[in-house]
Design brief:
By secondary structure, this protein is an all-alpha fold. It folds into 2 domains: 43 residues, no CATH class; 43 residues. Helix content is 68%, strand content 0%. The radius of gyration is 22 Å and the shape is elongated. The protein starts with a helix and ends in an 11-residue tail after the last helix.
Length: 97
């Protein structure tokens, strides 16, 4: 891989574009949710379906915002850990030889 920052800049690294493995807990939960959603939608009128889809879209937007914030927070925490690793500890009991 080339320079990581360049790869990220040019869009060659996209952490949110991941495939998922079939027959995992995630896959099974996704399938269950899809089946239930279809079952529920079949019982709704057209107006109810639109309202339900609006609710799902709003929920998806909240989830996307939460994912971005969690990603940023994780990145910041990782950088802070790296900074701490390079910072000399004046009060350390032991030192590297």
């Amino acid at each position: 891989m080339k320079n990581f920052i360049e790869e990220l800049y040019y869009g060659n690294i996209n952490p949110n574009e991941k495939k998922f493995v079939r027959n995992t807990q995630y896959s099974k939960a996704l399938e269950t949710m899809s089946e239930i959603e279809n079952e529920v939608l079949n019982k709704f009128s057209d107006e109810d379906k639109k309202l339900f889809n609006d609710m799902i879209n709003a929920s998806d937007e909240i989830s996307a915002c939460t994912s971005v914030e969690n990603f940023k927070m994780g990145f910041v925490l990782g950088v802070r850990m790296m900074i701490d690793c390079f910072r000399a500890d004046e009060h350390a009991t032991f030192i590297d030889m």
